[in-house]
Specification:
This protein is of the alpha+beta class. It folds into two domains: 11-234, 2-Layer Sandwich (Cytochrome Bc1 Complex, Chain A, domain 1), CATH 3.30.830.10; 258-398 and 418-489, Metalloenzyme, LuxS/M16 peptidase-like (Cytochrome Bc1 Complex, Chain A, domain 1, 2-Layer Sandwich). The protein contains 22 helices and twelve strands.
Length: 494
């Protein structure tokens, strides 16, 4: 998942292509939509004779149901097992070798799936053709399916014993309690074990279609040639209208979510607190997502008032550098994420950790209210323009590698929002006012329920004789690998 404050892949690639572009407004690269609905986007960068060919498909976790959760990930694996032109995994890999592929991979994320190869630019047409066969004419059979099931099951078993994954899923499955299966790609093992070819074909027919896909090509290429090649190989691809993804929308957070995770592998001497609030969804509350980025830019300084005020509180925070406030962009279930470390060495002196966690939640609520009443006075009148400039400067920093831009930043923004959203980012951030920030806080943070999770080393938690009593008194629920995941609450298997 890409955080907005880390949009760092863009500028050098674009400046190499559009050296006269105004600093404050990024120019969208050449873009066409084929008659079948496939979007084709081209990013020129002639610094090296390579071309990256990437195909992105909207969906993945955000399109899942309880019955098919995990199958988008399985489908991604199956796509590398062969198609009508390259019917076996061996022939598929031989084609990659023959094309001179320097880099290749596929990824299933929460909101999209993408596949890419980087080839010598002289092999661009062959690279586009290669993916056209994989996307349009995959071949599924029972032997391949059984083999890939075991690969995917082993991967998700790794997820399900990973402490960070456990912590994240436990919090999200409760915060997004109506549709929790739309927030991670794992799914229960049973879904993978029972998966059928018919289910994979259903995913192909509803999501792997041109109206729900994009071809993104970057590097030593000419747009006109790319569009012609795309029409030749992807123009015949058939499919229906784009599916509706993330609807009905995720609801508000239920009140009273408070979790504690005793983790035997956590850091010594500190406890990690995470708080989340339901935030805007990018396609439904678009303006609020730009305002959120400017607001978070104002909060981000380690020596600014926000972090300084938190450090002055008596809750025992560890270090301002580890106070983070993020807003990962999402079309389905936007949320604000606050995290910090609390010193955890001597409960007798410091007080019970759960009490301190609740005290920090109150400190944050009070701080948000101070900002809401007069953000200009809180931050300083000149800080708004500085925060906008900081965001835009971050947006103009870039990896001077077309492949990174195409497979990372541009794929993400096309999938989650639109390319128009991304390339209008700077202008829309400049429009944000103090009044917008005040309204945003009132809408999402001041009086909305937050979900809390405290993660602490298990031996340190066990050594606190009052921990159990405080859990009950404050309404905290202890979580771990046996109750972290949504399907466990619904009677599903591991």
């Amino acid at each position: 998942m890409i955080n907005r404050l880390a949009i760092a892949f863009l500028a050098a690639a674009l400046l190499a292509v559009y050296p006269t572009a105004a600093r404050a407004e990024t120019i969208q690269p050449p873009h066409e939509t084929l008659a079948n609905g496939l979007e084709v986007i081209v990013v020129e960068n002639h610094s090296v004779p390579l071309a990256t060919v990437c195909v992105a498909v909207r969906g993945a976790a955000s399109a899942q149901t309880p019955e098919n959760a995990g199958l988008f990930h399985l489908y991604e694996h199956m796509l590398f097992d062969g198609n009508e032109k390259y019917p076996t995994q061996a022939s598929f890999m031989a084609a990659i070798k023959r094309l001179g592929v320097a880099n290749w991979n596929g990824e299933t994320g929460n909101q999209y799936i993408n596949y890419y190869i980087t080839v010598p630019s002289a092999n661009l047409a062959d690279g586009v053709e290669f993916w056209s066969w994989a996307l349009e004419k995959p071949v599924f059979n029972e032997d391949k399916l059984e083999r890939e099931k075991q690969v995917v099951i082993n991967e998700i078993r790794g997820y399900h014993v990973d402490p960070s994954h456990i912590a994240d899923d436990a919090l999200e499955s409760r915060a997004f309690s109506i549709y929790p299966w739309r927030k991670n790609i794992d799914g229960p093992e049973d879904n993978i074990q029972k998966a059928t070819i018919a289910q994979l074909q259903d995913i192909r027919d509803h999501y792997y279609i041109p109206s729900n896909s994009a071809l993104l090509v970057g590097g030593d290429v000419e747009p006109k040639a790319v569009f012609a090649i795309a029409e030749k190989y992807f123009g015949p691809w058939k499919g229906g209208p784009a599916p509706v993804i993330g609807d009905p929308p995720q609801g508000p957070f239920p009140p009273g979510i408070a979790l504690v995770y005793p983790d035997k592998d956590f850091y010594q001497g500190v406890a990690g607190l995470e708080l989340r609030w339901r935030g805007p969804d990018v396609l439904k509350e678009t303006k609020d997502t730009y305002t959120s980025d400017v607001f978070l830019s104002l909060l981000s300084s380690p020596v600014g008032r926000f972090k300084s005020d938190l450090m002055k509180s008596d809750v025992g925070l560890y270090d301002p550098e580890y106070i983070q406030f993020g807003f990962p962009t999402s079309r389905d279930g936007g949320e604000y994420e606050f995290s910090a470390y609390l010193v955890a060495q001597d409960p007798a002196k410091e007080g019970h950790l759960l009490d301190r966690a609740e005290a920090l939640r109150k400190v944050l609520k009070d701080e948000f209210e101070l900002i809401r009443k007069d953000p200009a006075a809180y931050f300083g009148a000149d800080e708004l323009e500085k925060a906008k400039t900081k965001l835009i400067d971050q947006n103009l920093l870039s990896e001077e590698v077309a492949s990174s831009f195409v497979t990372g930043t541009l794929t993400f923004w096309w999938s989650v929002a639109t390319t128009d959203y991304f390339f209008g980012y700077e202008g829309n951030c400049r429009k944000v006012s103090w009044e917008d920030i005040s309204a945003l806080i009132g809408r999402y943070l001041s009086d909305s329920p937050s979900a809390a999770e405290l993660r602490i080393r298990s031996d340190a938690y066990a050594a606190d004789p009052g921990a159990g009593d405080r859990e009950k008194a404050l309404g905290y629920v202890e979580i771990g690998p046996d109750n972290a995941f949504w399907w466990q609450e619904r009677g599903g298997s591991k």
